[in-house]
Amino acid sequence: MPVPLFDTQTPLAPLREEILARIAKVVADSRFILGPNVSAFEQELAAYCGAKHAVGVGNGTDAITIALRAMGVGPGDEVVVPSFTFYASAEAIPLTGARPVFCDIDPETFCITPETVKAALTPRTKAVIAVHLFGNVCPVKEIEALGVPVLEDAAQAAGSLSPAGRPGVLGTAATFSFFPSKNLGCFGDGGAITTSDEEIAERARMLRFHGSKDKVTYEHIGFNSRLDEIQAAILRVQLPHLDGWAEGRRAAGEHYEQAGLGELVRLPQPVSGCQPAWHLYVIKHARIDAIAAALSAAGHGQKAYYRTPIHRQPAMASYAPAVPLQGTDEAARTHLAIPMSPVLSAEQAAQVSGAIRQALAAAPRAL
Ligand SMILES: Cc1ncc(COP(=O)(O)O)c(C=O)c1O
Fold it and tell me: Degrees (nearest 5) of the Cα angle 305, 148, 121?
């Protein structure tokens, strides 16, 4: 049986009736913008993360742009960001008027480290974006110790755990995406910012609403970017299940380990002490194209997400990195996401691992 790259339908199936009833209630109440579900979800998300505030916005990209603006980032500033991540992590920076400065990652964890950030710092650095890529959790406290504020891009890390707390509470502020395939996904676009800083929370609330508190006085050039009431209602049904789904994702990673996949390819390595809720399960191998072709031929899902890192994208041509990005280039060249979901079974992990074993059988081991 082919194993899909991700499975969002099976975990949601038992919640279907409840979700439909909550949507019907929103329709009946006819409060579609910044209504009771958005404020309740903001409180529930903040409590889940252990942060004082959550601000629901239109998507994870706006969440980063608004959070950076709320942190005071603007023209003349630099923001350090990894190049091995989804484009939006860096795209948000020029939208504030600031300049992205690309830093390297640890190719074992796919996350930035204090060392890679330090190499990219300049007197103009105003913030660092720590992307908790694939569900791993960056060492935020160690990066903050360099003396620079950290914005967590937690789009892929809802449900992950670290000794210092959950993503969402580790830096000055954090951003989430509720894109449907995410660990916590809605039925359209959605995002949020979490922070325990009163001023940042208040500025973010204004910025998502045209820079205004009351739609009478406009204090900033802002955005029209709110989390929809229907999406908030859907997310409220799902949030209590996030930890269970995260356990399922961790168990799926263990299934791959037990299937012996680590003898064949390089498995993703958790950052020391953290327990990733693997959003994507990303392996590495020197012959990754042969593995991808074999998985496709067997009907299994696979995808190379960031073969061209952001600093090599045409729109980023004017932001050439000042430091070598060897870890980034290695990860970009050799990575591949294989099937992962909260309900991926041991049998499915064995099937995928078996297809990879066959693909490599004739070739020497090269990690
Ligand atoms: C790491 C990362 N940052 C930011 C985003 C942007 O989120 P959105 O698609 O909701 O704008 C995504 C997801 O797509 C992402 O994976």
Answer: 70
| CB of 159 sitting under 6 A from ligand 1 | no
Say if ligand 1 is within 6 A of residue 153 CB.
yes
User: Distance, CA 179 to ligand 1 centroid (Å)?
Assistant: 7
Task: Kindly state the percentage of the chain with pLDDT values over 90.
Answer: 98
Q: Which residue has the tokens 């989430």?
A: 176
Chain segment 282-304, per-residue pLDDT in tens: 999 999 999 999 999 999 999 99
Ligand 1 near 144 CB (within 6 A): no
What does the pLDDT read at residue 367?
Answer: 46
Token pair for residue 324? Answer: 């070598």
Q: Which atom of ligand 1 is nearest to the CA of 131?
A: 1
Ligand 1 pocket, residue 84 CB under 6 Å = no
User: In which residue are the tokens 């484009």 written?
Assistant: 87
> In angstroms, what CA-CA distances link 239 with 43, 47, 185, 216, 252?
12, 11, 10, 34, 20
Alpha carbons 347 and 263: distance in angstroms, whole number: 18
Q: What integer pLDDT is reported at residue 68 of this predicted model?
A: 98
Give how far Cα 44 sits from Cα of 21, 59, 179, 234, 241, Å: 20, 18, 18, 13, 13
For ligand 1, mutation pick of 6, 57, 61, 279 (most atoms within 8 Å of CB): 61
Mean pLDDT of the chain: 97
pTM score over 0.90? yes
Ligand 1 pocket member 59 (CB < 6 A): yes
Supply the residue whose CA is at minimum distance from atom 12 of ligand 1.
155
- What digits encode the pLDDT tens for the residues 223-281? 999 999 999 999 999 999 999 999 999 999 999 999 999 999 999 999 999 999 999 99
Residues with Cβ within 8 Å of 39's Cβ and at least 6 positions away in sequence, in order, are none
Q: Is the pLDDT of residue 12 over 80?
A: yes
Q: Is the CB of 264 under 6 A from ligand 1?
A: no
